[in-house]
């Protein structure tokens, strides 16, 4: 049954990836030849993204906090084949280190603050940076809580006699840490590259960001908090969220509209 539910969610995630691909196909490439900032705020799009992010976060949080433990631990044979060897992992030190690594979220904010203080970024760019970061954070976190609340399968540590009375421990899919880490990595890489397209530091920023995010995913597996499938899915959703949100701020030809019961995208040719 867990495999069936997993297949359904993979299909939903894949469908969710269609939108940024369609949108990006109609977007202009870079604004390096222009004096305008690489990204800009758009009232309709930003209000829609904020409303969508807040709504998803509230819905996901309510479902997540109402989670209850299942009565029985499923057999390891019911897990996905490549996840079975990791059932029973449990390492508290790896868990703590992965938690501390979340402080890396402060680095891009410190960097943009430095740019503002040294007049390398104006107020409009800083505002765009902050708003898009909030939108990405709300969306990726809300989606994660919402999906985890369906309790597709339990955390690996439950097979090592960890506390089975925590409802959230029964929703291992997908990794919130990996989603947050990769959303931050892609956000940092894309922002830096668009702002400094000729900088020799672009490959360094991308390498360090993605390597750090990958380390977070590895630590979550080692800690017994998630399976490889959870981490890969989290990396995909987090990366896709940052990519989509930033692309929506890259051109005036693409906009998002979110209303109760309706989500639409418009492209002007």
Structure in words:
Keywords: Membrane, Transmembrane, Transmembrane helix. InterPro entries: PAP-like, PAP2/HPO, PAP2/HPO_sf. It comes from Hallerella porci. The chain has 269 residues and is mainly alpha-helical. The protein has one domain: Vanadium-containing Chloroperoxidase, domain 1 (Up-down Bundle). Helices cover 58% and strands 4% of the residues. It contains nine helices and two strands, in the order H-H-H-H-H-H-H-H-H-E-E. It has helices at residues 2-16, 18-25, 43-65, 92-100, 106-117, 123-148, 176-195, 202-223, 228-248; strands spanning 254-259, 262-267. The protein has a two-stranded antiparallel sheet. The longest helix is centred in the middle third of the chain and has 26 residues, at 123-148. The chain starts with a helix and ends with a strand.
Features:
269 residues; mainly alpha; Vanadium-containing Chloroperoxidase, domain 1; two-stranded antiparallel ribbon; 9 helices; globular; disordered N terminus; PAP2/HPO; transmembrane helix; membrane; PAP-like
Give a quick precis of the structure:
This protein is mainly alpha-helical. The chain has helices at residues 2-16, 18-25, 43-65, 92-100, 106-117, 123-148, 176-195, 202-223, 228-248; strands spanning 254-259, 262-267.
């Amino acid at each position: 049954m867990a495999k069936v539910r997993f297949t359904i969610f993979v299909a939903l995630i894949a469908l969710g990836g269609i939108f940024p691909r369609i949108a990006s196909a109609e977007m202009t490439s870079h604004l390096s030849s222009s004096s305008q900032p690489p990204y800009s705020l758009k009232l309709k799009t930003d209000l829609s993204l904020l409303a969508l992010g807040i709504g998803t976060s509230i819905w996901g949080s309510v479902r997540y906090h109402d989670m209850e433990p299942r009565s029985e631990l499923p057999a390891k044979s019911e897990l996905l084949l490549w996840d079975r060897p990791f059932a029973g992992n449990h390492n508290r030190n790896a868990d703590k280190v992965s938690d501390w690594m979340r402080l890396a979220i402060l680095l891009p904010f410190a960097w943009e603050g430095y740019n503002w203080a040294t007049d390398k970024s104006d107020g409009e760019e800083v505002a765009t940076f902050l708003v898009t970061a909030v939108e990405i954070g709300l969306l990726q976190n809300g989606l994660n809580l919402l999906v985890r609340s369906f309790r597709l399968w339990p955390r690996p540590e439950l097979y090592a006699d960890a506390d089975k009375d925590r409802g959230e421990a029964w929703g291992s899919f997908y990794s919130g840490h990996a989603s947050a880490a990769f959303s931050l990595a892609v956000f940092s890489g894309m922002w830096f590259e668009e702002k400094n397209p000729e900088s020799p530091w672009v490959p360094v920023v991308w390498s360090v960001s993605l390597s750090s995010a990958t380390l977070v995913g590895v630590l979550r597996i080692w800690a017994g908090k998630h399976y490889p499938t959870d981490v890969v899915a989290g990396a995909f959703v987090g990366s896709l969220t940052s990519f989509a949100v930033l692309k929506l701020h890259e051109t005036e030809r693409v906009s998002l509209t979110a209303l109760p019961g309706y989500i639409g995208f418009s492209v002007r040719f």
